């Protein structure tokens, strides 16, 4: 009972594997799309950061030149004041009083040219962005956030890849074991249904169990053909019965339901099928939809649908009992 429970659980897991695998692949594709979008956004942020860093460097260079010019002017003024005091023994205010009227003529024109040149240089400095450092720090924080998100996506991708690998490995393990068991049972059952014949199951891609198919090779006694398409209708039906029986024997079930599987069989092959059905009847419940009288004879109970003269259908059931031997 425990083995049957495990088999049912394994069958449930196997039936759900395709759904889980599809969900894992869909999740992986969605994660890949999110990762691509984030990487594109990260690229845009990196370009903006480079542009901001370039602009910030230009501003720093301009501010540095401005500081150098200011320091140079201050140094020149200090030098002129020291020279005025050293050579003329005058303070700046006293020198201005001695000058009196503003300069005129060539001296004034020279001063105007110098003033114009200084204004042009001052204009070239441009406006200073007082929040450049705050903007740069915001870009740095955004970059750190996006970097963390990208790393999280990479971890999720690795986890999904690991899960997919585990699921694939489990599928390969379960399928490989099931195929080996069914293949072994198929050879035995085929030999019973076709005495002197040879049948086996093969994989189309033995090296890739996730993508492989299963081919059936059947050679009834006295024939050279192995392709099922070249067999007669009865031989094909009996081969199909052999495959189903192999699956039933490799992975037993509490009950089986067969629908007119023996309709195309002759008397000899029907006898072989019935002997096989008796074995399953001893271990499990087997329900067969049939019109064969010999199949009905081995049943423990018969169920049929009949229509009376009033046109109403009803279920007829009959339980069969084995006749007792004479003298019992």
SSE order: HHHHEEHEHEHEE
Count of DSSP H/I helices: 7
| Portion in beta strands | 5-15%
Low-confidence stretches: 323-328
Overall pLDDT score: 83
Approximate helicity band:
55-70%
Q: Look at the helices and sheets and give the structural class.
A: mainly alpha
Gyration radius over CA: 48 Å
Overall, the morphology is rod-shaped
The biggest beta sheet reads: 2 strands, antiparallel
State the end-to-end CA separation: 36 Å
What's the arrangement of strands in the largest beta sheet?
1-2
Number of strands: 6
Write a brief structural summary.
The protein is mostly helical. The protein has helices spanning 2-88, 92-99, 106-125, 132-193, 233-250, 267-283, 293-297; strands at 198-203, 214-219, 255-259, 285-289, 301-307, 313-319.
Q: Features of this protein?
A:
328 residues, mainly alpha, two-stranded antiparallel ribbon, two-stranded parallel ribbon, 7 helices, 66% helix, rod-shaped, disordered C terminus
Question: What would you note in describing this structure?
Answer:
The protein has 328 residues and is mostly helical. It is built from 7 helices and 6 strands. It is rod-shaped, with a radius of gyration of 48 Å. Residues 323-328 have low confidence and may be disordered.
């Amino acid at each position: 009972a425990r083995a049957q429970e495990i088999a049912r659980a394994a069958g449930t897991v196997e039936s759900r594997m395709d759904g889980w695998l599809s969900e894992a692949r869909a999740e992986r594709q969605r994660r890949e799309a999110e990762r691509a979008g984030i990487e594109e956004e990260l690229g845009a942020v990196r370009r903006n950061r480079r542009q901001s860093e370039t602009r910030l460097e230009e501003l720093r260079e301009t501010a540095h030149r401005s500081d150098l010019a200011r320091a140079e002017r201050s140094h020149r003024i200090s030098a002129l004041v020291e020279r005025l005091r050293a050579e003329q023994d005058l303070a700046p205010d006293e020198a201005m009083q001695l000058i009196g009227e503003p300069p005129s003529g060539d001296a004034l024109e020279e001063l105007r040219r110098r003033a114009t040149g200084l204004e042009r240089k001052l204009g070239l400095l441009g406006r200073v962005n007082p929040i450049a450092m705050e903007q740069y720090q915001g870009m740095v924080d955004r970059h750190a956030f996006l970097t963390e998100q990208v790393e999280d996506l990479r971890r999720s991708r690795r986890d999904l890849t690991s899960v997919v690998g585990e699921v694939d490995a489990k599928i390969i393990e379960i399928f490989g074991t099931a195929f080996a068991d069914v293949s072994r049972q198929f050879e035995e059952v085929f030999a019973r249904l076709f005495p002197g014949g040879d049948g086996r199951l093969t994989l189309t891609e033995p090296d890739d169990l996730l993508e492989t198919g299963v081919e059936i090779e059947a050679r009834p006694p006295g024939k050279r053909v192995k392709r099922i398409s070249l067999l007669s209708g009865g031989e094909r039906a009996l081969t199909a019965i052999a495959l189903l029986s192999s699956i039933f024997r490799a992975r037993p079930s509490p009950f089986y339901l067969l629908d007119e599987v023996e309709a195309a069989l002759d008397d000899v092959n029907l006898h072989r099928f019935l002997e096989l059905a008796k074995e399953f009847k001893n271990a499990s419940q087997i329900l067969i939809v049939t019109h064969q009288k010999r199949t009905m004879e081995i049943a423990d109970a018969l169920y049929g649908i009949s229509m009376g003269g009033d046109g109403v259908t009803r279920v007829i059931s009959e339980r069969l009992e084995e006749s007792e031997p004479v003298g019992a």
